[in-house]
């Protein structure tokens, strides 16, 4: 049986491996090479060394500003999304009438496309700010908090479902034993619930961190980087560099490589730190 499985293993693996290579591995290594080249199309690439990386970090400070704005946004958004989603999950795992309805309503914003969501929130925020003589692009703070509100509203429901799954996996016998021993609700939360849902916390932190760093369509629709590129996040800056400036294709590709390394390092560090705190249920 094992010999037959080994004989046919390559047959079943090859289609997936070929698709993965064509769609990911080959473009990835080509993109890595092109980040060291000056090019208009792939066929006319000319190797220029690390010149593109130097230009990426020295070009009017746009990339550094976008990086700093993205880090600030990610820090606040990740905390807000996970704290609110966890609190909602705690409430919706109690015996409350209409729990399934509330879960559905909170999850629904995640089904709306980013571009559509961006324009919806632009109308909402501008509708409020116009009463005071402002718009969302009047001040970078408006755009910043608009992006935080938009991202939180979209992702909280998704993270809430993951936390609910983790909480429901906790044995009722353990919770009842803690209550019988006189443990307070806060003590149960800190000593039983949070350690038991650490796998869910790991997943939610990973998703929120990576999605926040990669935010693009919502940023494009809500502010498009205005005013004066002050609300431009990394993904939008890379897009504008690559497609908006002639002769800067290599610089845009270099920024994309730096972006990939940054997100990978942050995500792997987060996975290492949170997995080390996971416990067996």
Which terms summarize this structure?
single chain; 281 residues; mainly alpha; MetI-like fold; 2 domains; two-stranded antiparallel ribbon; 12 helices; 1% strand; globular
Describe the structure.
- The protein is mainly alpha-helical and 281 residues long.
- It has 2 domains: 2-34, no CATH class; 53-275, MetI-like (MetI-like fold, Orthogonal Bundle), CATH 1.10.3720.
- Helices cover 74% and strands 1% of the residues.
- It has 12 helices and 2 strands.
- The protein has helices at 2-34, 51-58, 62-92, 99-107, 114-129, 140-168, 172-180, 185-196, 198-213, 217-222, 234-244, 249-275; strands at 37-38, 46-47.
- The chain has a two-stranded antiparallel sheet.
- Strand 1 (37-38) and strand 2 form a beta hairpin.
- Helix 3 (62-92) runs parallel beside helix 6.
- The longest helix is centred in the first third of the chain and has 33 residues, at 2-34.
- It is globular, with a radius of gyration of 23 Å.
